[in-house]
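Thread: Newbie trying to understand structure tokens

Hi all, I'm a second-year student working on a class project, and my supervisor (Dr. K.) asked me to get a predicted structure for one chain before our next meeting. I've only ever worked with sequences, so writing a 3D structure as a token string is new to me. If someone could post the tokens and maybe explain what I'm looking at, I'd be very grateful. Here's the chain:
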Amino acid sequence: MGCRTTDPVQVDGFLPPGACAPRPLASAGIMDIKVASFSGHESFPFRNTWLTKGVTQCAEDPTLFGKDDALVSLGVGKNMVRSIRHWCLATRMLEEDDTVPNNRGRQLKPTELGKRIFLGEAPWDPYLEDVATLWLIHYQLVTGDSKATTWYYAFNEMHQPDFTRHGLEQTIGSLAKRYPEIRASANTLARDIDVFIRTYVGSSNSQGTLEETLDCPLAELGLIFQPAPTSPYAFARGPKDTLPDAIFLFALCTFAQVRSAKTLTFDDLAYAPRSPGRVFKLDEPALAERLERLADLTGNAIQFSESAGLKQVLLREEIDSMQVLDGYYHGTSVSLGENR
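---
Reply by user tm_fold:
Sure, no problem. This is what the structure looks like when written as tokens:
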């Protein structure tokens, strides 16, 4: 019997039957995580208006989340106030204000991306009406590891195409043991897994239609699905028709910037942690198709080449990834390369 083509996860050093050993990756991945977290969301996935409320009101009052009247300002209960704070930080729409001495999280401020999406005279998409923004928020959430470690692990380090709730709890439980200072109980981890699943899998009502009011908006992306009520959950790997090239390019440029790389191999872009292929669950043909469009999209600032069987992306010029997004949201044509 042949081995599965999709790389499976190793648990305690063992591979499932019929599985191939995963291909080596260029980055150390999970071993690089210095701080992990498996709580903070108060058992709520974020809802459609939460990031908007959190960013806009925190911009007016940086100490909002420490005040008793935050319940009134945000129009939610106490636990939801804490959850909104968590999700604004986990998606990196807000950050701690490091200019305040001994801040310790008491004062928050919008990140540059948070400002562009939600604030100003011409915000990009303050009410998350464009699916592109959901892809962008997904990218921000799963490439940051310290506030949403389970989300990071599932999309960047887990190799198998599907998973069960119990199996993921065991895997995350083994991971949590590397951080004894957290003292994450089995119940804490089970709640974290539950919220992770509910972030991407929408609930259905008695008629079998999706409930939109309380679901996390990221469920719209269709990245995880359950074929039948008793089936494992599966990642939807393949083309992503609703993913704009601009969001893909933003992710690629960020990936290259983090690595300080001018050349990226196809395998790294497909399989390395935090890579566009891994984060957006693109299969190899879908990734190659995206990469082939980069030359036209960037005015040859980025080129995809194949020589002697080696496929790679060449970054010939620096690209301002924020400018890429600004051009997308404002519907303008921008010069992307530094020499253009």
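A couple of things are worth pointing out once you decode it. The first strand starts at residue 94 and ends at 96. Residues 1-28, 205-211 have pLDDT under 50 and may be disordered. Feel free to ask follow-ups in this thread.
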